[in-house]
Amino acid sequence: MSKWNKELISSNILLDYDSTNGYITDRIGKNTLTPTNVTIKKTGNYYSAEFNGTTSTLITDSTDPTIWQDGFTVVAWIKPRSWGELNYGRILDVSNSAAGKDGFNFCINNLNSSLFCNINEGGATRSGINSISIGSWQFVVLTVSSNSYINFYKGDIDVAPTLSGLANRASGLITSITTTNPVTIGNRSTATDSTFDGNIPMLKVYKGVLSLEDFTQIWSSTRGKVN
Asked: What is the domain class of 3-225 according to CATH?
């Protein structure tokens, strides 16, 4: 039995946001999710949360900075309509500034058409050139190890996720993630000036670094809900 099937639905999962059933919910019942200007629209047989690119935000009540200290993995399906406000549409953010001060950000960026992450203003890290496209469904993964190495992975409806860009990139240290601002989906955690524009139907955050096998299983089990 794989790590995904045995453990990750319980103790190792930090956030499990889902809107495919028609309303925004945290399926493990541990976080309160507060949406502002986020709409739910049906896509095929399922539903998707849509962020408007200007004022949408989805705030959680997760404020404990120590949850990041063992490393973490973020997996999400996204379908951007544009690069978002200021061309840095946030997928996930917990920080005190646009550059990830005292925390980190995970977003799409028009520079090189890529994924982007910055930990505590430690420097930009990006996925491969032209790895992100506008107007299509993509499965995106960010892993940050306990020694602060960053990796990006990307897949789509038909193609399983693979490493995108250079492996084991460096930014700031995860020990510098100290802010108690709430973890926020689709915008910055202290402002609404980096709004995602498009769909984020589901997003999961796990403690530790998942293996490629683990998040490929997540990709396989969820891709039918966004097609």
From this structure: mainly beta
